[in-house]
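Researcher: Good morning. I'm working through a list of sequences from a screen, and I'd like to move beyond sequence-only analysis. For each chain I'm collecting a predicted structure so we can compare shapes side by side. This is the next one on the list. No need for commentary yet; just the structure.
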Amino acid sequence: MNKKGLDKIYGKLESILNKPIAELSTGQKKVISLLIAFLKESDVIFLDEPTLGLDTSKKKMLSDYINKIRQNKIIIIISHENFFEECFNNLITTQISN
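Model: Good morning. Structure tokens for this chain:
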């Protein structure tokens, strides 16, 4: 985590790593799943609602981290928020109406 700069985003995780998953908040579960996605050596990262359960400061740190790594990866994000618009060269938006 230190090598990739993820420690700055997620800080100390010892307090949640030993808890049963059922006791974790939505945000804590999201943090762990994001760490797993970023720590894997992959050319493609697929993130489904990555900001769910995160506070504004964590969202900003996540956006900054994605900006940092995006030149070397394909990153696909599905989100209801417009938080990542500045991160990407190609953006596809959809609107569903009844």
